[in-house]
Amino acid sequence: MIKHLYVIIILTGLIGFSSCQQNNQTEEKKRGWALVIHGGAGTILKKNMTPEKEKKYLEKLKEALEAGAEVLKNNGNSLDAVTASIMVMEDSPLFNAGKGSVFTAEGVNEMDASIMDGRESNAGAVAGIRRVKNPILAARAVMENTDHVLLVGEGAEILAEDAGLEMADSSYFFTTSRYNSFLKAKEKAEKHGTVGAVALDLNGNLAAGTSTGGMTYKMKGRVGDSPVIGAGTYADNNSCAVSATGHGEYFIRNVVAYDISALMKYQHLSLQKAADKVIMNKLKAIGGDGGIIAVDKNGNIAMPFNTAGMYRGFITSDGRTEILIYSN
Ligand code: ASP
Known about the structure:
This protein is of the alpha+beta class. Helices cover 40% and strands 22% of the residues. The chain is built from 10 helices and 12 strands. It has helices at 2-30, 51-73, 78-90, 135-145, 153-162, 170-173, 176-184, 248-253, 256-267, 271-285; strands spanning 34-42, 111-117, 122-129, 150-152, 195-200, 206-212, 233-235, 240-246, 290-296, 301-302, 309-316, 321-326. It has an 8-stranded mixed β-sheet. The chain has a 4-stranded antiparallel β-sheet with strand order 7-8-9-10. Strand 5 (195-200) and strand 6 (206-212) form a beta hairpin. It is globular, with a radius of gyration of 21 Å. Aspartic acid (ASP) binds next to strand 8. Aspartic acid is lined by residues 40, 96, 192-194, 212, 214-215, 224-226, 232, 245-246, 248.
């Protein structure tokens, strides 16, 4: 009798094990990748856009998506995908990050960036840097080469230089259009335009990154939400990856990126519900202009914003892709 019982237990165990294996396999097969990017939110209205300018933005956003998608398609990790997408936008004068960054009240470019790995909550960030061509790489160097999370100014630049990153002088970051906005800043020029990316890779790892020149005519030394982990950037494999753009002070005070992740984790809200609650209700009610892009651990995507427009797009392994500018 006991012998029979043993056989039954062993058989049940074996069947359970093999079906569990099968489940894992189907799960793995089903698991895809997803990438979402933004190029800033603000008063982006179709009536103020020329068809040529619109085309340039759409093309550059497509190029940024393709750069990240290439990494994910080849089983690369989400951190590399996020970095690749952000670098395309940093190198373009169209966006307020890297080349094309806005000017401070003193007429210089001071850039901020951050990156977060959702696997083990590792993160790196830089603020107030003036000489690193791709600030997102400097943020990554802080994460990978130091025990710290956030380095500012000269210290961050020295680290970047030591890490062999390409440096650039102020003339590289200068663009006439941003300089004109700076000159018009007192008359309330457009102030936004950060870039960001979030990704889920084939191994289920989430990552988020954000890079910005900050806000036009900001005070020397002002740091926004973009390099603040939990405010402008956050990633946790157990919930989601978020990158924000908008009026940074509101995003810092409301710990926006972490708030979305916490609503998912502790209140079990869906990604869309959590993101809408924070951006469309909470922030909107207090005049916090902006938006976020996010992807969750299951590949769901959300891109809410409470401004007139947000440069944004996504691409997924099941062939869905979209690039949008205005609210629909
Ligand atoms: N959030 C950025 C900042 O406050 C600006 C932006 O996203 O446009 O520095």
